[in-house]
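User: What would this chain look like folded?
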Amino acid sequence: MTNKKKEVVKQKSKPQDSSTERNRFYLIFLFIFSFIIYGNTFQNEYALDDGIVITQNHFVQKGIAGIPDIITHDSFFGWLKEANNDVAGGRYRPLSLVSFAIENSMFGNNPGASHFINVLLYAVLGMSIFILLNRLLIIKQTQFSNLIHLPFLTALLFIAHPVHTEAVANIKGRDEILSLLFSIIASIKFIKYIDEEKNKNLFAGFLFLLLGMLSKENAITFSLIIPISIWFFRSPSYKQFFTLTGVIISSAAIFLLLRQTFANPSLDKEVTELMNNPFYGSSRTEKYATIIYTFGKYLWLILLPVHLTNDYYPFHIEIQSFSSSGTLISLFLCLTILTIGILQIRKKTIISFSVLFFAITFSVVSNIFFPIGTFMSERFLFTPSLGYCLLLAYFISLVPYYKSGFILFKKPINHHHPPVSDFFKIREIQIILILIIGFYSTRTIARNFDWKNNYTLFSADINTSPNSANAHHAIATEFRKAGEKSSMLSKRNEFYTKAILEDKKAIEIYPNFTQAYYNIGVTNLQMDNVQSAKTALKKSIEIAPKYADALNNLGYCYIQENKLDSALIFCHKASKIDTGYFRPYSNLGAIYLKKMDIEKAYYYFQKAHIIEPNDPATAKAFDEISSILRNSH
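Assistant: Here's the prediction, encoded as structure tokens.
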């Protein structure tokens, strides 16, 4: 009897061994594939918002010692050193900042190490997506269990999709990666709880979901996604389902409490700066017509990710009305997709689940429920795109069944349709994957080069976003910085001239663009065009009277003209507006030195040096005034 039982077990283990070997190969392939298409980011530098979360974030720059401050403050506080008032609502995403602080302690400011870790986490995310879908759809008997290649295809499409370059090639995008990674792991644990009824999986799911939300608030949408997944693909008992739901709600509640405690929770504050509220000045009708129009742009972007850009600021997207063709087409497409998804809910199809996944995860970045500070952004598709990849992979998986007469919507894929052998040897499958994965991969690799640094990124994206005021200002800033670094006078002035021209284009698009006027002023100062600098800086202050940088630089202009009393007025104003800004104090020290008031000059140079001891010019001025003061005694 015993021998026979052993023989039976041995015979039954063969299919399992085959699937285990296949799955192991898939996981290794996904891991290596991630490094192949993102390996060219390892040479990239810091870009875009990396300064906010790394190089200019004084909590992160403290390394591990800064972690307590990161956990107990708004995510922008370490950058601004005060509560953020530029965008509605707060940002409480401590986990990615904690990872940057740890990296800082280990490697210093090393973008190569940070890029490597981003790709590593992305590879693990791709593998986790495969594990989740394999458990959800294949391991347990469902109507889709015979689509054994579906999890792999979904993960492969997700890893390759070019729209993810902003999240992976930009180090700051780690919040997106961690948020989805922990949410996926939480989903796996909760599904294992339903399958195995072990409380340890329930606790692990609670913990990982909380970690996902602490990475980025978007993970809170998995409070709906996870129960929906279980309702679609499992048949839990009422006790299991309500226990799981209660644990998920508890995890979300703890996150919201932490966010309420440490972040700025105000969502009703109207932001009046167009660059942080693109709908400012628009009617409610225009706002929602434009939002619906962007939905169509998102659909096009995810279907055909050719023209990628980091900049969707005004007016790369133009304000729309409900009579515009773009809005009407977008509305029709969205309603059609939602209708198909809703009609399929009772049948619990992949189509319905994919639509619901996309809609729910996209809802929090849609501008419908609360403002997000821009018209749209490619990083906002990071999590929702998983729904699209699942749907596309599903249609690809059905190709062999189409050939055998399967009709979509008519009958389910179940045990009447056995798994297709030699799936990847089917010519149609090969052609489809070569075209789609080939296009996605080459586009991703090419886009990664754009993310090398701010100069390469903004130089590329100005061609895609020529109607964005911010795009012109961004490249103007890079031209100015390039001019400052150039040792050749002719080359320096060439960069400065380009910078002024680009900022003037920005002002043509947005006449009240404070930072563009300021940049023109600073650039003219570099060219010793003091009168032109004063004109631009005064315009900047006219728009934003409490703009400390502009006030301080206007004061510096008056120092250059030896109009010291006027210089005192503006530098004093700047120092009172931003008490933690060292440059106004340094300028005040220079003014009093010119006035031969050594005591006051020493006082202000000392104050500037205390605030910023690492600034070479301030340190030198303080040493010199200290020497003068000592000799005078």
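Residues 454-632 form a domain with the Serine Threonine Protein Phosphatase 5, Tetratricopeptide repeat fold (CATH 1.25.40.10). If you want, I can go into more detail on any region.
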